[in-house]
Amino acid sequence: MKTVETENEGLKRAFMLTIPAKDIEAHVDREVKRIAPQVRMPGFRPGKVPPNLIRKMHGESLQQEALSSAVQQGVQTLLTEKKIRPAMQPEVELGEGYEHGKDAEVKVRLETLPDVPAPKIDKLALERLTVEADDSAVDAQIKTLASSQKNWTDAKKGHKAATGDLLCLCNSDLIFFPGWLPPMVTAFDRYKAIGMVGNLQRRVDNNWIDHLGVFFLPNGMPLHVAQNKTYVPVLRYLPVSAVTAACCMIRKSLFQEFGGFSDDYLNGFEDTDLCLRLTQAGYQNYVATRSEVRHHISASPGRKTKENQNLNLFCERWLAVTKVIAEKEAATWDTFHYILQAPQFVRWPLLLQTWSRFF
Fold it and tell me: Which segments of the chain belong to CATH 3.90.550.10?
């Protein structure tokens, strides 16, 4: 792997990695050998499918997974060899014009942690302070705790007070990092007939992906794309059927035109309902993968109170439609069954392969 440093200013660093095509092909060979025992094909015993047929059947997804693995390995090697301590997850971008069989050029941008010398503490002395709280202080603290535990009622029509062209809707259980907003805003300049724009949301407890858009299973039920995965997508924008309203953006005029979120739902499915209404009207929903937040999953008060009621209403309104969408998104139920049964390292690329419009 060839590494060229393109920026070194202050804490900002940038590199251009060139990953040889033979390294990517070696990753493909390893993936083929690894999944071969689990591949089933008519006319062959389990685990006896020839490697060339496995490549023919899953070549695109294996290539995508191999490229992703090679990129991640290359970035990790870069950080190790250069002894770099990134302040946040590096921004990785695949160079334009990449084709199968050619070397891959990858741009890596990051900010490093500053070198802070250890302070001298051998001459420091500690003083223990003692504070006695009287009854009035205790009563005041109890009132503060009580006021912080109030249940708030959603102001679903509060968008009328917004003065901008775009509405950004966010949960109260999110953690934001610098740079999360511009990729979502840019989507509205980049695409026409755009509906709702979501983003990449990771769990706070383990940093796994919780949301990268919503797709529909063959039974018509919604499922978060790449949930509980650590995969870092190369594409900047993914077209999806729906996004979660935990953090999303939409034009104010469009939100008002469609009546916003339906008041028939309460803390569940109203975001998917709106996305489906937008889709039926010819709009496309997207996920901005470079916009990233952390999410305390389902931490809002009353999140699951009306779960069954919301589910029944959603099925009544949309199940027939989402089953049709599922047929378009996945070639057959057998493909989805294979994806769900496939090893974790190939499941996400296979899922992407079922949506040809992603590429």
Answer: 162-358
Name the token pair of 270: 């109203």
Buried b (16+ CB within 10 A) or exposed e, 181-205: bebbbbbbeeeeebbbbbbbbbbbe
From CA 64, how far away is CA 62, in angstroms rounded? 5
Measured in Å, how far apart are the chain's first and last C-alpha atoms? 26
What is the per-residue pLDDT for 65? Answer: 76
- Residue pLDDT, tens place only, 132-152: 888 888 888 888 877 766 555
- Please tell me the pTM assigned to this model: 0.53
Residues 162-358, CATH architecture: Alpha-Beta Complex (3.90)
Judged against a pLDDT cut of 70, whether residue 303 lies above it is answered with no
CB 181 within 8 A of CB 248: no
> What's the pLDDT score for residue 149?
61
Q: What are 178-235's pLDDT values in tens digits? A: 899 999 999 999 999 999 999 999 998 888 888 888 988 888 888 887 777 776 666 7
- Confidence (pLDDT) at 342: 45
Sequence ranges of the chain with CATH classification 3.30.70.1050: 2-111
CATH topology of domain 2-111: Alpha-Beta Plaits (3.30.70)
